[in-house]
Specification:
Rossmann fold, single chain, 7 helices, 20% strand, alpha/beta
């Protein structure tokens, strides 16, 4: 494709922009991307393009070039921002994209990776499926539990007794994303889908 920046893997964390949402349950995807950037010593080196925060890094072989993306147009417009952000790359959503998001139907302490699937009621995933015209991309769902009205629950912060476990889930989510980069979705699923963390 003329004018592209070549082959790249993309990890997209979902969330809502702004300080008021930073530590809400809905923003665990953003937190995983932020942690990856921190691990790779790339914090503060990103840019905003077409409604998304971008950080491009080069990892040791065989991983190569990685684009970390945080859509910044609120959850239900995630696909629009992500599609625009990667338009100058050769990304094939079905092989090169991992989307990290919260899951209200998984308990806190569990993550689930899949190579494809429906949106499962998640507005961010629904918009990405619409924007790319496929549900055949990898996704990593991080459990946030369910309590009360769903809309209120996802926009709430974690309770004090949940925060340590939530932090550990973000670390586990980053570990799983790195496994996906190194070994693919199948190996990441085998390694992480059966794990369940519990409060100390």
């Amino acid at each position: 494709m003329a004018g592209t920046i070549g082959a790249v893997k993309v990890i997209c964390g979902l969330g809502n922009p702004g300080e008021r949402y930073r530590l809400t349950r809905h923003n665990v995807g953003f937190r995983v991307v932020d942690l990856l950037a921190d691990r790779w010593d790339m914090t503060g080196e990103g840019r905003v393009r077409d409604g998304a925060g971008l950080l491009e890094v080069r990892r040791p072989e065989p991983i190569g070039r990685v684009l970390l993306v945080k859509p910044l147009q609120y959850m239900n417009r995630s696909g629009v921002a992500l599609r625009s952000a990667v338009r100058q790359t050769d990304v094939d959503a079905e092989t090169d994209l991992l989307v990290v998001c919260d899951d209200i139907d998984l308990p806190l302490g569990r993550i689930r990776l899949r190579g494809s699937g429906s949106a499962g009621g998640h507005n961010g995933l629904r918009d990405i499926i619409a924007a790319f015209g496929t549900d055949g991309f990898a996704r990593e769902r991080i459990g946030i539990g369910r309590a009360g009205a769903a809309a209120d629950h996802v926009l709430a912060t974690f309770r004090p007794d949940e925060r340590e476990l939530a932090d550990e889930m973000v670390r586990l989510g980053a570990d799983a994303a790195e496994r996906w980069l190194r070994e693919g979705i199948g190996e990441a699923m085998n390694a992480f889908n059966g794990l369940e963390l519990t409060p100390d």
